[in-house]
Structures are given as C-alpha cells and as structure tokens.
Amino acid sequence: MLAKKYRLLSTTKFQHAKLYQSSYFSLRYVKSENNHSTFGFIVTKKVDKRAVIRNEIKRRFRACIEEKLEQIVKGYHFLFVIKKEALSVNKEELCKHIQEQLKKEELLIA
Length: 110
Known about the structure:
By secondary structure, the chain is an alpha+beta fold. It has 2 helices and 4 strands. The chain has one domain: Ribosomal Protein S5, domain 2 (2-Layer Sandwich). Strands 1-2-4-3 form a 4-stranded mixed sheet, with helices on one face. α1 crosses α2. The longest helix is centred in the middle third of the chain and has 17 residues. It is globular and about 35 Å long. The two termini are 24 Å apart. The model has no long low-confidence stretch (mean pLDDT 93).
C-alpha cells in the first residue's frame, strides 16, 4: 500500500500540467513544493462498471509505483488516468510499460 504522504489529495490543482498519453494511461504531472512526489489514480466507469475491477487495476498501478518509488524524480504531483486497455495486461508488463514511459519523460532516475 502506498504510504499516506505519497497519495495525491483530491484538492490538488493541475493548472499548467504536462500531459503524456500512453496506450494504457494518460499521465498529468506538475511540479510541487514538496520534497517527495505524490500519486493519484483514476479509473472511470467507462473502463469497467464493476468497482472490484476498477480497484484491482488501481492496486496494480500502485504496486508498480511502489516498486520504483526511490527512482522516481522527487517534487512532482502525478495523476494517472487509466484506460480500458490496461485491463488486458498482466502486472509485469504493466510495470515495465510504466517504467519505460517515465524514463521517456525523464521522470525516472536511471
């Protein structure tokens, strides 16, 4: 489980946020004043109407972020909007994809 200090508050504003589109998710990120990064995950009912499935996919994303937490650049707010295509991928492939996309955006320390 992602520690409370790494969770994104619902009141966080994403004005002038950078947007990155992937095949499994959209990522919005913005610089923050904190010395650690925070993460939020959104799965809409368009992805799946069942809450169990939506929660499961969020847990997969959180687990991937937790594994790479020390390597992710500090001082950002990240918001992942998860797409329907992420349901068909297993956790290992999803983690690898997230890692590649964060490297591409220079948000991962190599």
